[in-house]
């Protein structure tokens, strides 16, 4: 099967963060690819990847990057596909990467999730794809219902935790 989502990262040292996106896409049954590209060390490869993404059948690109965090923006400059940036925690607790990804010039948008928020990037990608895929939309509804049920269960369990001055 051909991938419809691409997960890219500046280097394989970003894999512990980006694998959360891969795990979620896997759970949802979404075909994806995963590669390391560097906006600074392999710029020609990044541009070739971005320019060929749509013709290869990709629908969404998730790009993780730390420090200067140029990768998501460079990719977005060379494709009309939606790009979701994942700032990777590093220097300045990822704030430097987040600001680099968020502050794109007019005409080159990059959707941005929180620092190390690869799972949310995958959820956002799935929500985009679900606009034209009712089966995936149902999987997402079930996933979110499961999140609600976890909190409801946690609240029930909290009722059993006793403290001298606790009133509920």
Quick structural summary:
The chain has 168 residues and is α/β, with parallel strands linked by helices. Helices cover 46% and strands 15% of the residues.
Which features does this protein show?
about 170 residues, alpha/beta, 6 helices, 5 strands
How would the global form be characterised? globular
Write down the oligomeric state: single chain
Sheet with most strands = 5 strands, parallel
Mean pLDDT: 96
Largest sheet strand order: 2-1-3-4-5
Describe the overall structure.
With 168 residues, this protein is an alpha/beta fold. Helix content is 46%, strand content 15%. It contains six helices and five strands. The longest helix is centred in the last third of the chain and has 26 residues, at 134-159. The relative contact order is 0.16.
